[in-house]
Amino acid sequence: MSKLHSLHTRSIDFVLAYPQVEVKSVIYLHPPAGIILNTNGEDVVLKLRKNLHGLKDAGRTWWEHLSEGLENIGFKQCNADQCV
Predict the structure, then answer these.
(1) Whose CA is closest to 65, among 32, 31, 20?
(2) Rounded to an integer, what distance in angstroms lies between the CA atom of residue 74 and that of residue 11?
(3) Could you report the per-residue pLDDT of 11-26, keeping only the tens digit for each?
């Protein structure tokens, strides 16, 4: 489409996009193997504060965060294609 209309395009790779978004639900997980925590022998779980790749809702949560940020600076979502 941009070639057809002689427009210049750019792409952005969001390498750390998911971990920048707060998790909406409460998620607990066991520490990864090799991580040693001083817990006096007690079992420990960690509360997740930020999204991780592989979480069921990570993509949707990131998309909502991105859409909200773009709307806040004046962009509007296209009615013909909700992904644009």
Answers:
(1) 20
(2) 20
(3) 777 767 777 788 888 8
